[in-house]
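Notes from the 1:1 (GR / supervisor)

We went over the backlog. Supervisor wanted to see one worked example end to end before approving the batch request, so GR pasted a single chain during the call. The sequence is below; no edits were made to it. Supervisor asked that the structure be written out right there so they could see what the output format looks like.
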Amino acid sequence: VAHRNVVRLFDATRKWFGFGPDDVWTLFHSYAFDFSVWELWGALLHGGRLVVVPYEVSRTPGAFLDLLADHGVTVLNQTPSAFYQLAQADADASPPGRGLALRTVVFGGEALQPSRLADWYRRHPDDTPALINMYGITETTVHVTYQPLTRERATAAAASVIGVGIPDLRTYVLGPGLELVAPGVVGELYVAGAGVARGYLGRPGLTAERFVADPYAAEPNTRMYRTGDLVRWNQDGELEFVGRADHQVKIRGFRIEPGEIENVLTDHPDVAEAAVVVREEQSGDARLLAYVVARGALRAMDVREFARGRLPGYMLPAAVVVLDRMPLTANGKLDKASLPEPDFTVPRSAREARTPQEQIVCDLFAQVLGLPRAGVDDDFFDLGGHSLLATRLIGQIRAAFGVELELRALFDGPTPAAVAALLDTAGPARPPLASRERPPALPLSSAQRRLWFIHKMEGSSATYNIPLVVRLTGTLDP
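Structure output shown during the call:
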């Protein structure tokens, strides 16, 4: 990334922000994260003051809120994940917004959910501070677009609007053949102009793959950067962020966008934040796991029941884990690797099995789910089960008891107790399929071939005139 790219970034955005020597900035992010370029040079190029945030303070929202007040910070740059935690600390402070001098908050680094800002706007005016959403990527020098936010945009139905391009950049929404797509149609975002980097150091192949020729440029030999982000133009001529082209996951044949599940979970009144990830099991099965931060007292089972009524079964997380706060990377983004594994090992049911059948079914539950044990009243699906594992469990029950249970029975009564109660009335198991050698093909006479042809021409329900058939074929083999 050339030095001139950074200088032109601030020149091109000067009219929007009016940064000056009276501004106080924070260096919140690691210098390995491109957001730090905006923080460092935003302060130094305008003669402002830069407050370096200690790492421990950056991970303690209450302490960071105090730092902002104590140093009179006026320009704050945050990833949405970090700001959600700061906003919660602000809500818990007495009084909220104590001594803050903020005039501008710039979001970047990851997708913003405008609905998550509604609580902030209930405590603060629209313009004190002004909240700005800026989409950007390292390869185009930190920022690409600009979108001022308002109270009206912070609604549950609001899309993640990233706004309009910086004046010295060109933004294209293109289809698979690099054709321009119509407004409202999702396509991949390409960026051209003065902010585009030179390429990847020492990686010419990757550079050629991502930095491609710009077919819409007025000048020859102009390149554009392929972002891999999916966007669309809305009716107001603004870009809406849809997601990554590679963020979709496929689980048991269904294509799933985790962000859609996160939006449903955050609709719960007691959920402040939500993240959905996919984890691979030892068996090779993929499992959806949800992590939520509660506003108060919240049980994981309540969140899952809330989601059950709003999501199709294949999108329902196998488990919900309630956290005090989301773990963040050094760059302030969600640290997915630090999200804890859900604990499926502790049965929710304290009641012991009353019959040998119940105990055997409990053991089969545990075996199929890969758990040490399962309680007699534990729900198969709450323990991480899904449709494929349910089919496997029905097969194990067939082999153990010699009875045939319909798969529907497990969905209607997903506990060992309910399954065991059906064993006495279930029908006998169907004989298992067995492989057999195919018998050798018998040669057909010409008469048999003619009969087969007539049968096909007339139809399977044809009434045959036997004398006519005999005359046609010459003979009638048995």
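Supervisor's comment: The longest strand covers residues 223-233.
Batch request approved.
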